[in-house]
Amino acid sequence: MDEYSRFVDWDKMDVSPQSQDTKELTCTDLHELKQLARQGYWAKNHSLRAKVYHKLISNIPCRTVTPDANVYRDIVVKIIGKRNSSSLPLPEFVDNSLIPTYCLNAEGISAVRKIILCIANQFPDISFCPALPSVIALLLHYSKDEAECFEQVCRILACNDPSKRLIDQTFLAFESSCMTFGDLVNKYCQAAHKLMVAVSEDVLEVYSDWQRWLFGELPMAYIARIFDVFLVEGYKVLYRVALALLKFFHKVRAGQPMESDSIQQDIRAFVRDITKSVSPERLLEKAFAIRLFSRKEIQLLQMANEKALQQKGITVKQKR
Fold first, then answer.
1. Is the pTM of this model over 0.85?
2. Which site in 25, 43, 166, 306 is 20 to 30 Å from 79, CA atoms measured?
3. Mean pLDDT for the chain?
4. Which segment of 51-55, 123-127, 260-264 scores lowest on mean pLDDT?
């Protein structure tokens, strides 16, 4: 077993711990890294992927005081103590989001909650971050222990490069990303957009699920492939994949009656069962075939949407 096996239930994984020889990642050229990530170069080798994640995350520019593994070892005892983490309430900012178990064993499943609680303690400024449980659960598969996973997630959250958007941490950022996704659907997936408008009362509510499709509903083999690219290329890849999911949903479901009385539920179910219709390779191929706006244009769109929300006074989630 390799050193990154502690939290993995190998019966659920589609990669064996020893698959292939352990390659090292020596390339540092961004263009080459991009190609390797998109091709899934480290997808079939568990310990190689763990080392690549480690390397890419340790290169993220961060705030000077970013909590590390030692901080976790200090605070986990105070925060969790001898209590069972499953009995402790999770912070409001995860917004009752799904806590995917992916291919984690029982120790891994319990570790996800512990790490969320410790992050809430160290990042009081996070007010809305529904993607966090999924990111922690995914990274635990590639961590030697809880403290290492905590440090990696903290680096992603503490990224201070203004040109590198990683994970939304406020309701304003999250909601404006949903509006931006809606704008992109309207431009790049017009057939799917027409369907959404025809069958849903509130199309923005459907598009507000876009991050949940990725960080919650997608199976492990898919989100890991997306995360490979995300760590190299950033946030834009998330929009690409979500657009591709919608295109496939429309193609597979076109002309068929809805399976439930809610298109939102139908899309979630489609994404959850995506293995029946689309492979990870095809999903990524489709995602990269979309001639998307430049990163700069997406940033401007996002800023315009944030401004519109602020002018309406919508900066926190309204209680329903």
1. yes
2. 166
3. 91
4. 260-264
- Supply 265's token pair: 């539920």
Distance CA(68)–CA(80), nearest Å, equals 18
Closest to 95 measured CA to CA, from 48, 56, 134, 58: 134
HEC states along 24-56? CCCCCCHHHHHHHHHHCCCCCCHHHHHHHHHHH
Lowest mean per-residue pLDDT among 53-67, 83-97, 214-228, 262-276 = 83-97
Residue closest to 226 by CA, chosen among 271, 264, 179, 183: 271
Q: Which residue has the tokens 């139908």?
A: 266
Phi and psi at 222, nearest 5°, equal: -80, -50
pLDDT of residue 317: 78
Report the C-alpha gap between 280 and 233 in whole angstroms. Answer: 18
- Residue 6, CA atoms < 13 Å, CB-side half-sphere: 18
In this prediction, residues 285-305 reach a mean pLDDT of 91
Residues in contact with 259: Cβ distance below 8 Å, sequence separation at least 6, in sequence order: 265, 266, 269
pLDDT surpassing 60 at residue 21: no
Instruction: Please count the other Cβ atoms lying within 10 Å of the Cβ belonging to residue 30.
Output: 10
Under 8 Å between Cβ of 110 and 86: yes
Q: Which two tokens stand for residue 11?
A: 């019966």
Amino acid at 96: N
Token readout for 247 is: 């295109």
Token pair of 9, please?
């239930």
Q: How far apart are CA 170 and CA 239, in angstroms?
A: 18
